[in-house]
Specification:
Helix content is about 40%, strand content about 20%. By secondary structure, it is of the alpha/beta class. β3, α3 and β4 form a beta-alpha-beta unit.
């Protein structure tokens, strides 16, 4: 009898095949690509080029920016760094954690096509699990099983996002990789520096998972709310216009801080809400990544 992760993977494979067919060009069916190490040529710099590939000696000699070209690897290693803290269990559709899990499994299956290897780092304050990268469908199933396993631990403090990202930077330092970071980014500040360390070395895709009620408080009258991270409870009147105004201001300030942190880290985050269609999110990520295989 098929297990729940196996049924989930089969369903995602079927949907991926139908919805993404024709959106990826070429036989090597992945939007993202490996970063080769073999230098092959020099050419003039264009605005779309990665500034890390500029050859400064040649640029100074010719008085015009030039970039190094490399032979790209056919095989790529991808890592999924997934926040499993208490705040990720909040929200609709079984919570942000469930949405992140399904999206990670779908992306892992997409990336694994063509013989690529995938690994995962699952993190909360109390513990973490590292799944070394391997290829094949069995590896996707292993990651799916770990993601679907119950994670009921709570902590008395907010998520240490810096520790999660430092662990990811240390774990992935041996080889340039494609790194997916999936989190709601609710936690202690200061995460932009370790995230920048990852983006400096790897192609990095940040996926921020949020619930719509975190962006706009629904009018539900008098309710008891609980901080998923610390367990603190508070009775609030969600119909109070002053409260709603203050919360809207706080949400705006938080969004500004997050945007500034992403800018410092040199990456643009994909924001995914729990009420979005999973396959629509994947199609949009393919479109925003150019939809072209290199």
């Amino acid at each position: 009898m098929a297990t729940a992760p196996d049924r989930l993977l089969r369903r995602l494979e079927w949907k991926l095949g139908r919805r993404l067919d024709g959106r990826l060009q070429g036989a090597y069916r992945t939007v993202w690509h490996g970063a080769g190490l073999d230098f092959t040529d020099l050419r003039a710099y264009t605005p779309e080029d990665d500034v890390r590939h500029i050859d400064w000696n040649v640029t100074a000699r010719l008085d015009e920016p030039h970039v190094r070209q490399y032979t790209e690897d056919r095989e790529m290693t991808a890592w999924f760094v997934i926040d499993r803290s208490a705040s990720m269990r909040f929200g609709g559709n079984n919570g942000k954690e469930s949405v992140a899990a399904e999206l990670a499994i779908a992306l892992a299956r997409l990336v694994a096509q063509g013989g690529n290897r995938v690994g995962a780092i699952l993190f909360d304050n109390r513990s973490h699990k590292i799944i070394p990268p391997r290829g094949g469908r069995d590896q996707i199933l292993r990651i799916a099983r770990e993601l679907k396993a119950q994670n009921g631990t709570k902590d008395s403090k907010t998520t240490d996002l810096s520790a999660m990202l430092r662990l990811a930077a240390t774990t992935t330092r041996t080889r340039r990789s494609l790194v997916f970071v999936m989190s709601d980014f609710i936690g202690d500040p200061g995460w932009d520096r370790p995230l920048a360390q990852i983006t400096h070395r790897h192609e990095t895709v940040v996926i921020r998972v949020v619930d719509p009620s975190e962006l706009e408080l629904p009018d539900l009258g008098l309710i008891l709310v609980e901080d998923a991270e610390t367990g603190e409870t508070l009775l609030v009147d969600t119909s109070d216009p002053l409260l709603r105004g203050r919360l809207a201001d706080q949400v705006g300030a938080r969004e500004d801080v997050l945007a500034e942190g992403m800018r410092k880290a040199g990456v643009r985050a994909h924001r995914v809400t729990t009420d979005q269609d999973l396959l629509a999110v994947l199609v949009d990520m393919v479109r925003r990544s150019g939809g072209r295989v290199r």
